[in-house]
Fold:
Amino acid sequence: MSHFSEVNYVDLPAVFALSARYTDDPHPDKVNLTVGAYRNEAGKPWVLPVVKKAESMLAADDTLNKEYLSMGGLQSFTDAATRLVLGENSKVINEDRAVALQTLSGTGALHVAFQFIAQFYPGCKDIYVSNPSWGNHKLMIDRLPGVNFKQYTYYDPKTMGFDLEGMCRDLEQAHDGSVVVLHACAHNPTGIDPTKEQWLKIAEVCKKKNHFPILDLAYLGYASGNFDQDAASIRLFADRGFEFIVCQSFAKIMGLYCERIGCMIFVGQTAEIAHKCLSQMKIIIRSIYSNPPAHGARIASMCLNNRDMKAEWRTASRRCMPG
Structure:
């Protein structure tokens, strides 16, 4: 008798099931619309030229080795990723209140963030997610003990637009100090974002209710074509004195899908609080995968820190962005 005889089969998430069907389909004119990824004119995977350039430079660098990264990852990458989101002259960076960790893409950042909330957040353990939202939000939250998955109104099917009134009503009715997951830009799956004025109202409600924001940032630049404009919602929360977490992915914006490169940024009320929380987040990472991979982080670091490569990345990535 197996110890696991009561385990039930579970179907693959729809996006992966459809991708598998695409791979198995012999039709010569098939088109894959399942996963949002860079493709060339022939529909084949497209690697950004600046990424190829970075890989060539890394391959030629004899000083590099295969030693472990630290639990927090490659600091040249996380520092640059933090500046990209919060701004070069960010007050919270200058005050050492923003700390960051390299994660296994945005999914890994969210998982570490939810684990941290489950273990250390002293407020209400209700985690609110937009309705609708990316399906993995619910999957991760539901599997964590001690937290509760909740939803707030986001989409109005009558207007096919954003329902600010419904969202603010739900956040007002939530328990004080709830956790609220917000899509910083390019909302998944609707593609509908709040305006600047609407973000101000959302921040006002969150401040009034003492909610803790987690900002999911998978598509920086995809909403407007401008990185600073798409990061404005996050900078608003920083300017308003919030403590918050940003979960950032470089899968889409650099085409580093299989490299699993992400960054989790925590902004605390003080530098001491931020670094205490960072230490606990590192222990969470230690318990899951110990430390992150180096190769993709080195690519991203080069593209963010080298002025010419950063300009090339911004130019190339706009081929698949509006604006």
